[in-house]
Every structure is written in C-alpha cells, then in structure tokens.
Write a structure and sequence with these properties.
This protein is α/β, with parallel strands linked by helices. The protein is built from 13 helices and 21 strands. Strand 5, helix 9 and strand 6 form a beta-alpha-beta unit. Helix 1 packs antiparallel against helix 2, helix 1 crosses helix 6 and helix 9 runs parallel beside helix 10. The structure holds zinc ion (ZN). Zinc ion binds next to loops.
C-alpha cells in the first residue's frame, strides 16, 4: 500500500511542474519512504534467495534464512563484490528474464562484469533520471546532444530513456573526436551537452579557441572530475556542468547533483544505501542493495567507492538526501581520462619491454586541464628511457584500442619515466597505481 502511494507520487511528479512535483514528493513523511524501502528490501532478498543460484548457495552456506531477513544488519557480514560477479558469471545472479545487457570493464582485472536488465527496469531508471534532469532545468523545448560512448556502456541507454520522459530533442554522437563533434554539433544547435568529464574538457578547449555557443548546462558522469577542471569547462560555456554518480552494476545513476553542485541527491526509492567501515567522519565504502530489480538483483553490493551519507537538508530544497563527493576508490582502480585503469593495464604495457625491471608504479595527477599518467619504471639502464617509451606506446596502440583512442583525442597524457633500481619501493607493499589528483572538495566534504 505504501509502495503504491510512492509509485503514484513518482509518476505524478513527472507530469507536474518541477516545483509542484518537488513539493509533493517533499510532503511525504520520512517514515513512509523508510517503510517502502524496508518492504522492497525484504522482497529483493526473498526473490534472490529463491531464484538466483549465487544468493541461494551463499545464504545456504551461511545459514541465512531469507524469510527472516528484515534489514541489512540481519545479513551479518554478507556482501556481494564485483569479484563475485566476475568469478561466478552473470547467470549465477539471474532471478528473471533479461531483455538487455551492459558491461563494465577494466577494473582490477581484464574480465568484464556483465549486468543484465529488463525493459521494465530500464523504464524505471529512466523515470528516476527524468526527475533529476527536470530538477536541473531540462525541458521539452531543449535540444540535447550526447557524446556518451555507446559500446556496452549503460549511460546512453538510461539517458535515452530519461529524455523520452522529458520529451526533448535528442541526438547521439557517440564518443567521437571532440573536433568532429564540434563541427557536426552546430547543425543541431544543442543547448545541453552530455559527455564524460575528460572528453568535455577537451571539447571545451576547442570551444574556447573556436567559439562557444549558448548552452543551458552540460551533464557528465562515468568518472570523477576535479573542481578545477569543472570550473574551466563552466567558464568556457558560461553554463553549469552537473555531475551524476553511478555504476553499471547499479544500472546508471544512483545520484545526481542539483544546482548547488554539492554532493549527489540519492535515489532512495530504488536503492538502499549503507556505508561500511565508516571512519570518525562517516566516510567508508558505499554499499547498495537494489530495491526494484527482478532480473539481476544485487544485495549489499560493494561499490569500492569511498564517500559518506549527507543527511543535512540541501539548500536547493529537494527533499532527497545526498551522497557526498566520492573521495577515493577502495581498490587500486583509477577512473581517469585514459579510461578505467588498474594495475593489470600497466603490467601489460610493460610486458614486452626488455629494459623494464620488476618494479613499476603508475601515478595519476592532473595538470589542471587533463589527467597525466606517469609510468615510473625501475631499470638498471637509465639510457633505455626511449626504448621503454616506444614499447609502451606500441603496446598501448595494439592491445588497448579504447585507451589509445582517448590518447589520440588528447584526453590524457602518458609519460614513461625510467627510475634507478630500488627507488620506488618505500614500504613492504608497492602500491602499483596511485591517484594523486587533488580533488578540490567543496562544502560537502
Ligand atoms: Zn540540492
């Protein structure tokens, strides 16, 4: 009964002017939302226990009776990890008939994680996304041009679905060269542009040189962005750049910024969020349980992103609470202009380099405009710098076409630095990938 009430409110909110929709959703008491979440949580756990071989087996092994699970704490220290997805394969997680699939690649392993969904789930994601985009001012009369990469990536599909609810003009360029995008965009006069952060930075550099046109806002997601880079983009277009936070496993955005650009308003209707191993300030790993998924429900999925829940109301007045800016990743995977890179990528780049010693480290920084990845390699032949470099770049081109494409688009800079032996390891364990980009964290942090 409560779930029905919430669903009605969710639907109605799309047909009301944003101010009224916001007020209507905001009038719902917190207790109502919490009861809906609890009911959906119980339903998800039972569905998974009955139909998904992975959860059935895990619960059996741990002596968990799904019928007795009322809240996340009842599951003790049970979590689902990305490694479970890779190791067991998507079939082990299926609880219903899928209509479509997406992949997320290049984390700490070359094996992709595959996540499957139904068209109903896609529509629900679209509805939630539409509320967020309306809140940002997107209207039927706007013209969106998107440069999201369509290859197995979830964002173009969820964006398309959300824009369908808004009813605005929408064309998809795919992730093409920013210069080509610039030339071809002009014919459509888009006043809203969607693209990944590093790609938008590059497009904005071109626009600065060649001229920007009037834009309502830019919208981005898929990787973290420094506030410095955001400000550069905003200065060129004289328009705000809004970010969303999500994961393919979550089916796109779990939270979207508002005009305050101070944390992501989270979707509590479709996810139950927890923070694991929180420190004194509340920062820990973000964990989520999907609340409306029937094809591949995920229970207490470890996002590997470190953030905190922001329970204070936002000055924008939107009733939903926020997730703070992502502070770090738990593993060594780094999302940057190169793409999603982990230690295995650099190990592969160095495989054929005869002069490379066993020790190496990739350090990601930013020069304010784009990410700079310095691959430091120990070698007893410092003169071999040049041959190291040419091997790395040749392997990059042959083995990693996506990373090469981003390099060609100048979305990042890759440097190879020869270092003397025993210069890199200062602790017992050498951290292979280090993200040194200074996120200029604003008030949310
Ligand atoms: Zn807000």
């Amino acid at each position: 009964m409560y779930a029905k009430l919430i669903e009605c409110a969710e639907r109605a909110s799309l047909h009301l002017p944003p101010e009224r929709a916001k007020r209507m959703l905001g009038m719902m008491p917190d207790a109502l939302l919490k009861r809906m979440q609890a009911a959906r949580f119980r339903r998800t756990v039972r569905l998974a226990a009955e139909r998904s071989p992975f959860y059935r087996e895990e619960f059996r092994r741990r002596g968990i009776d799904a019928r007795g699970v009322r809240r996340p704490a009842d599951l003790g220290d049970f979590y689902t990890t990305g490694e479970d997805l890779r190791r067991c394969g998507h079939e082990a997680f299926l609880a219903g008939r899928p209509d479509t699939a997406f992949e997320t690649t290049g984390t700490t392993s070359p094996v992709p994680k595959r996540v499957l969904f139904s068209n109903r789930e896609l529509r629900e994601v679209g509805r939630a996304g539409a509320i967020g985009l309306r809140q940002l001012g997107l209207r039927r009369e706007d013209r969106v041009l998107s440069a999201f990469d369509c290859s197995f990536w979830v964002s173009p599909a969820t964006t398309r679905e959300a824009l369908h609810y808004i009813g605005c003009f929408h064309a998809e360029a795919g992730k093409i060269e920013p210069a080509e995008f610039y030339d071809r965009a002009l014919a459509y006069k888009p006043n809203v542009i969607f693209g990944e952060p590093s790609w938008l930075v590059r497009l904005s550099e071109l626009a600065q040189a060649l001229g920007a046109w009037p834009i309502k806002f830019l919208f981005s997601g898929g990787e973290n962005m420094t506030e410095q880079a955001r400000q550069r983009v905003e200065a060129v277009w004289r328009a705000p750049l809004y970010l969303s936070y999500g994961q393919t496993e979550a089916f796109g955005a779990m939270g979207v910024e508002c005009a305050e650009q101070d944390g992501y308003h989270r979707n509590d209707l479709n996810y139950f969020f927890e923070v694991a191993d929180a420190d004194g300030e509340g920062y820990g790993e973000l964990i989520y349980t999907t609340l409306n998924r029937e094809v591949m429900p995920l229970i207490r999925y470890r996002s590997t992103d470190v953030t905190r829940m922001v329970e204070e109301p936002c000055p924008c007045g939107l009733f939903v609470r926020r997730i703070g800016k992502i502070r770090a990743r738990c593993d060594e995977m780094v999302v940057c202009g190169m793409g999603n890179v982990g230690p295995w990528v650099f190990a592969e780049l160095l495989r054929g380099a005869a002069a490379a010693g066993a020790e190496w480290q990739a350090v990601v920084t930013s020069d304010g405009r784009r990410d700079v990845i310095e691959l430091r390699v120990e070698t007893d032949r410092l003169a071999a710098q040049h041959s190291l470099e040419s091997t790395v770049f040749a392997t990059l081109r042959e083995r990693f076409p996506d990373f090469w494409k981003n390099h060609e688009m100048r979305l990042y800079e890759l440097r190879v630095a020869a270092c003397p032996p025993q210069s890199l390891r200062t602790e017992r364990k050498l951290r292979r990938v280090v993200d040194e980009r200074q996120m200029l964290l604003r008030r949310a942090m």
